[in-house]
User: Fold these one by one.
Assistant:
Number 1:
Amino acid sequence: NLAVNARDAMPEGGRLVIETRNARVEPGDAAEVAPGDYVMVAVTDTGTGMSRDTLGRVFEPFFTTKDVGRGTGLGLSQVYGFVRQSGGQVKIFSQEHVGTTVRIYLPRLHREGEAPEDEAIALAAAPSRQDETIMVVEDDDDVRAYTVEVLRELGYRVLEAHDGMTALRLLERRETAIDLLFTDVVMPGMSGSELVERARELKAELKVLYASGYTRNAIMQGGRLEPGVELIAKPFTYESLARKIRDVLEA
């Protein structure tokens, strides 16, 4: 993904450099990178570079500066999620008309089978148990595809539906026990809260996590949800989704 992005940033040609090395990060050396031993992977191009505004949004899911059909806006957010899940960090340095460097820091093992007890490892989201199943209900195809991919990478079994009625039909089959219903709040036809009400007629103890692009206050004031429900704001990152899912499942 990083190499493809670099290529696309150099439509008239340029230079692409991929570098790897062991790196020791001392306190104060790199903002947001915990002190410790890392393997550093850097991808540098001499392309168009990015503005400060663009640089501040590059890890947002679905954000892209490419033409329609040339990019989903998921690549860098997935790179970020993978690295953070591994206990590492990603740093991007860019200047317009000069180029971009992406540096990935992954915790380094000193001996085979031994992971350093480093603060960076603690940043990784908790893994799933193999017997947990999540149903994702989302009418936006891109958002649903991203969510399903993240959850499967985290080790969950996933069922998906594009609307409330489809979700209910899957629940009624009862072929697989559902541990968590992850649903959008505002959808055509049946809203998220209506879906949850009917789903809990089938399984009263069903755990639920809502997702919405609206703020919590706007949703509550609009009467779409009851106070106290579990909600994650869209767009969400790989890491924030991983942590929120575990919080709800373990509550």
Number 2:
Amino acid sequence: MMDFQLKVQKPLKELVYLELKHKILTGEILSQTRLMEISLAEKMNVSRTPIREAIKRLAEDGLVKVEPRRGAYVANISIKDMLDVFEVREDLEGFVAELAAQRITDQEKEKLRLLAKECEDAMKEEDKEAIIELDEKFHNFIVECCKNDTLSQLVHYVQELSLRFRYLYYDDYSLYDSTLEQHNRIMEAILAGDAQNARHEADAHVKELKKFVYELGRKMEIPVEAE
């Protein structure tokens, strides 16, 4: 049960929406799970109205399906869903790294080094929650170094789409060493102000993840197309 009284900075309906969205994205609520308004309202200690509004928004996000007689349930994720996101990330993250290499300040360089070290420590400890959080912080800070608000909004949206299957691929610890190496290559290119190489390394990083996720999806028998 969430204590919404402690979170007065946002409307209740927004908090309910964000909480349910996070549970779906992180896999706490699994694909095909029915979303029962009464049950969710009781668990979250709210009325059915914000639950109903949240489900409607989640359906608009593509995270929930609503069908006659069946009601609302969490949408499946497919290999195509994952590959679609990585196609966008390939160009987007390369552009981000290129701009960051051109615009990063000396103070930001120190912070980037620190974030990379924190991410490395979390991977060595195989702390999945910390890894996901720090990996996101590392990439978000590179976006921040671009000093472009529109780009930041685009990246944030794509990262949200990635979160749902990021929890899948970070279960495989074999990915950690290569991710660290790729992060370091991206960082060194940015620190050196080498925009072309920064873009190349960021592109290579996303391509490797795309290949890994495709193979993982096939191994886990995730549907190729959304049902």
Number 3:
Amino acid sequence: MARFNTRLSLRTTEVDRQLLATPVALLGMFQEAAVRQAEQLGRGPRWLHRQGLGWAIAHTRARFLGAPGWPGEVLVTTWASQMNRFLSRREFLIEDPAGQLLVAGSSLWAFMDMHRRKMIGIPQRVRAAYRVDPARALETVFTRPRSPSARQPVTRRVVGERHIDFNGHANNLDMLGWMLEQLPAEAGRRRLREVNIRYQQEILCDQEIAIRSEPAGNERPSLLWRHGIYRGGEQTPLALAETSWQPAPAGET
């Protein structure tokens, strides 16, 4: 079957002050489900490492309809909706135990030669392992997010070993987390509605990066934001994102 289902339990390290799953945790469930399917098909991280190969996420779009609370369990469904020579499109659904849809998302994945750190075509032995279901969890176009203005202040950091994943570069979840950390305090009184994030270049250990965010909406506080991660010189974008927000439901503070 093309579709893969897995149940995941929410951990206390993945929730906010209201004990609700954070956006980073929910996108982490996307990643976990994709890896588990690959492992089931015999093309998981260990097999890829032996071949000197690896997947690299290029773009993610997600729509958040709700957030599970702790303690709780969710059902994550994922499948490849498209797989050509150079890119794979993957779909995700997260539902609560009653079948209520919480998050829908789509992502684009490229393939890497891990020794040369270069993008390559998806090998036939990998493509052949997956069945494709063309249905989409999220009907969307992968538009390039706009970069925040260079006039905005930046936060600088050096990427540490704890941010490096099994592909040898900074994990995409850390990159999203760095962007969201730039938001002002009132962000805690809002809920993420949509995210559009594009990963343009990999980030390596000990690399200095600059992170910038900018309000893009007319509301005060803004419900639309642009985010960027750049090389230390602030000119070359490594990742760009746009996020849209909505007020938190009554009772959340």
Number 4:
Amino acid sequence: MSRYDEMMFTPAVEARQAGIGAKGKFASRYGQPERLNVGADEMDFLLSRTTLYIATVSETGWPYIQHRGGPLGFIKQLGDTQVGFADYRGNRQLISAGNLDKDDRVSIFAMDYARKNRLKLQGHAQMLSVEDNPELAAQLTLMDHPAPERLMVIDIASYDWNCPKYITPRFDTGEMTQLIGPEISRLETRIAELEAENAALRNEGPQK
């Protein structure tokens, strides 16, 4: 893996940083030995995502961003710094796949809106044939899903945790269930108790 700052802080970027007095302030952060490996926190976070934003580079030089998502667990760990997922039939434009045929570099945002966490990743990606990689296809294919058209494998080259500032919290149905599920269960139990009490009172009939 590479140091994030050495990969991303180009001379033009450093010139901008110098203009606000920020140049050189990140060296200790990115120079730590553990930053040259994907740690358990990073991998666990990535594997628990249900959505990714993946940017590729076109032959015209324009970046292209593609959303990929699925149920919890659709991203699989394949190695210490390698992940993959099954790529299913989409809109048939195949822009990301075509871009990767010419330039395998990707930039990825992995978001946790509920907790305002964001993991940025740089890497090298491949779109592999299902027919030529049957064992990998079996590993990445999701249960109760149709057969994938391709397999995407990403080798992580660097990463950085991003500031939570300005991330608007959003919750999917699973997160909402975790958040308010206990209170709903309590209310359902209380409603059942009140309905039982009401039924018992009706059965007693009017008092004479």
